[in-house]
Write a structure and sequence with these properties.
Rossmann fold; 12 strands; six-stranded parallel sheet; alpha/beta; globular; 306 residues; single chain
């Protein structure tokens, strides 16, 4: 019988050790990447015109942030502006046969219904945006609206910080059609936000710029669907926009953007759908922009308001 003294462990060279360590590192990096890409994606439906006006770079950032939070890919189904309702469901299916969920803006609600009829076991989310009194079809959708109360409450707080804290007047422009449906809620919430900052006067609400007196001067302005032409007449007025438009396309006076687009609400919408919440309200995603007309101390205060 051979002596155990003659049995030796194989000797691994330094080069072999490096190869093993490198292979292990590649394996450790590759496996999570493969798992990520194998997970069912979230699909967001949007048309070409929206994509260009929202900003492709901004869109990629929102998709990347979502992927990091949920460890799940998100894909954009870009639809041509003249695509028929019956074409869109097949465009979505071409991206993934078994998505985790699909988000449709309300303007594609008929396509969402067709998609759900074909895929009854897939979560179909319809983002209604700001309430406009529209009737939702009798379906099994997950329906989420923009949280008007929270948005205007926060906007009121920020408007004071932007200019009203020194006693300057605040103007709020609300689109006439939207004002019909949620104007009273918006006004009450905004005033509550203003008063929470220790300001004891009433902001001024308008549906058109034509209603403003020529000599009117405002410390800050809120644009909720209208009033943009005011900024063309007056410069360096700190402003807040409740809009999904790309900030790069906005006037330099816009300091805060409230984004209630599908990409701005993506994270919370998927979270609610994951919890099987069939309806709910989602606040807009708030971005404070670095503007030269605003002192850095004011910007820091704005970033703390939520």
């Amino acid at each position: 019988m051979l002596s155990l003294a003659f049995i030796q462990e194989p000797v691994i060279s330094l080069k072999q050790k490096k190869i093993i360590i490198g292979a292990a590192a590649v394996f450790a990096i590759t496996i999570p990447f493969l798992i990520f890409n194998l997970r069912a994606p979230v699909i967001v439906v949007s048309e070409e015109s929206f994509t260009s006006m929202y900003g492709k770079k901004r869109m990629r950032k929102e998709m990347r942030n979502f992927s990091l939070d949920f460890f799940r890919p998100v894909k954009n189904a870009v639809i041509s502006n003249d695509a028929g309702d019956d074409i869109i469901p097949y465009t979505v299916s071409d991206i993934s046969r078994r998505p985790y969920c699909v988000l449709f803006p309300f303007r594609f609600v008929r396509s969402a219904r067709l998609y759900q009829e074909i895929n009854p076991d897939i979560r179909v989310v319809v983002l209604e945006g700001k309430y406009t009194g529209r009737t939702m079809p009798d379906t099994n959708f997950f329906v989420y609206r923009t949280d008007i109360e929270t948005d205007f409450l926060t906007a009121g707080k920020m408007a004071v910080i932007l200019g009203g804290q020194d006693g300057g007047q605040i103007a709020v422009f609300i689109d006439p059609q939207q004002n019909t449906h949620y104007g009273s809620v918006a006004r009450e919430s905004f005033v509550l936000g203003v008063n929470s900052q220790g300001i004891g006067f009433q902001p001024l609400f308008y549906t058109t710029v034509a209603a403003i007196q020529e000599d009117a001067v405002f410390a800050s302005v809120i644009l909720a669907g209208t009033g943009w032409e005011y900024l063309e007449k007056k410069t360096t007025v700190p402003s807040i926009a409740l809009s999904w438009l790309d900030p790069a396309l906005m006037p330099q006076d816009i300091t805060v953007v409230f984004d209630d687009s599908p990409f701005g609400q993506l994270n919370q919408a998927v979270r609610l759908a994951s919890l099987e919440r069939r309806d709910g309200r989602i606040p807009s995603k708030i971005t404070v922009l670095e503007r030269k007309i605003i002192p850095k101390g004011i910007l820091r205060k704005l970033q703390k308001i939520r």
